[in-house]
């Protein structure tokens, strides 16, 4: 079963993996020309997603902290003003 | 560029399968996460959601910092899933099953805290007996666990979902950082005597 699967989707996998490689910042830095092994790329992807999750958690902490000290209406006004400015 | 046009115009037939096939050649569908318009929309939705969190946590006097930050994270993820407009599995999974999944997992963890030790050793022997499933498959399983709702997907679909998810997460990080910057700047400005 697995051999049949690999025969059918190997090219698809290669293409998707090259797309993925394009997305990951480290892979991009590492010259997208060199072909990284698929397993390594998957591992990098997992690590990257985990690091993004951690970043989002940290940012949530930070936002919670910031919002605790400000009242919301002035915060919203400030944000809207900045968003309109940029 | 075609990308930004498409992003600002969601009703312009983005949904069709034919559109998607064409886009895959020229610009990967993940490009929409990079547009400014998408980020701005997300930011305003996020602020709304955070405001609601604050209101509800103010009512519940026992809200700790951690639980509030958790609520912010959940709200951010939900807003992100909404921004995906239901076109990806991970977004649908977040919107539909999130609470249920957390519940079930929490209950399962609580139910067998002691059994974990023996269960872990059993699973170790089980995997070594399987004589190394291909590294690719193992990594694909880990990836499937990380992306919500993608546990049992075949590899090509999983990779597609993962690329979209990564792009969406990057936008989430950018938007939240921007909001944090603005708020901290506003806080400093408010503190200074005018």
UniProtKB/TrEMBL annotation, chain A:
Domain annotation BHLH: ranges: 1-52
Keywords: Growth regulation, Transcription, Transcription regulation
Residue intervals passing through the bilayer: none
Full protein name: BHLH domain-containing protein
Keyword Nucleotidyltransferase: no
Record InterPro entries: bHLH_dom, HLH_DNA-bd_sf, PRE
Record GO terms (molecular function): protein dimerization activity
GO BP, one annotated term: regulation of growth
Similarity section: Belongs to the bHLH protein family.
A Pfam family the protein falls into: bHLH_ILI
TrEMBL record, chain B:
GO molecular function annotations of the record: protein dimerization activity; transcription cis-regulatory region binding
Cellular-component GO terms for this entry: nucleus
Annotated spans, Disordered: 1-41
Family from the record: Belongs to the bHLH protein family.
This protein's record includes keyword Transcription regulation: yes
Pfam families xref list: IBH1_N (PF26576)
Protein name: IBH1-like N-terminal domain-containing protein
Start-end of Basic and acidic residues biased regions: 25-39
Segments crossing the lipid bilayer: none
IBH1-like N-terminal domain: residues covered: 39-96
Compartment(s) of residence: Nucleus
Main localisation: nucleus
SUPFAM superfamilies, A to Z: HLH, helix-loop-helix DNA-binding domain
Keywords: Nucleus, Transcription, Transcription regulation
Domain of life of the native organism: Eukaryota
Gene Ontology BP, a term: regulation of DNA-templated transcription
UniProt cross-references to PANTHER family, sorted A to Z: TRANSCRIPTION FACTOR BHLH148 (PTHR33124:SF12), TRANSCRIPTION FACTOR IBH1-LIKE 1 (PTHR33124)
């Amino acid at each position: 079963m697995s051999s049949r699967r690999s025969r059918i989707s190997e090219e698809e996998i290669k293409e998707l993996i090259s797309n993925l490689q394009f997305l990951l910042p480290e892979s991009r830095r590492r010259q997208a020309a060199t072909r990284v092994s698929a397993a390594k790329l998957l591992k990098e992807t997992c690590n990257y997603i985990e690091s993004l999750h951690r970043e989002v958690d940290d940012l949530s902490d930070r936002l919670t902290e910031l919002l605790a000290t400000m009242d919301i209406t002035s915060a919203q006004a400030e944000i809207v003003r900045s968003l309109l400015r940029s | 560029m075609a990308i930004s046009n498409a992003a600002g115009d969601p009703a312009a037939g983005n949904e069709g399968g034919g559109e998607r096939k064409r886009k895959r050649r020229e610009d990967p569908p993940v490009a929409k996460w990079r547009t400014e318009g998408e980020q701005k929309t997300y930011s305003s939705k996020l602020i709304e959601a955070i405001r609601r969190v604050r209101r509800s946590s103010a009512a519940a006097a026992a809200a700790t910092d951690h639980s509030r930050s958790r609520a912010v994270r959940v709200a951010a993820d939900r807003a992100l899933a909404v921004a995906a407009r239901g076109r990806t599995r991970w977004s649908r999974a977040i919107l539909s099953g999130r609470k249920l999944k957390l519940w079930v997992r929490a209950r399962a963890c609580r139910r067998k805290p002691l059994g974990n030790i023996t269960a872990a050793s059993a699973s170790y022997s089980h995997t070594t007996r399987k004589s190394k499933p291909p590294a690719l498959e193992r990594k694909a399983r880990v990836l499937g666990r990380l992306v919500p709702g993608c546990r049992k997907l075949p590899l090509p679909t999983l990779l597609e979902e993962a690329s979209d998810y990564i792009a969406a997460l990057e936008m989430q990080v950018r938007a939240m950082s921007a909001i944090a910057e603005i708020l901290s700047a506003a806080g400093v400005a408010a503190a200074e005597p005018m």
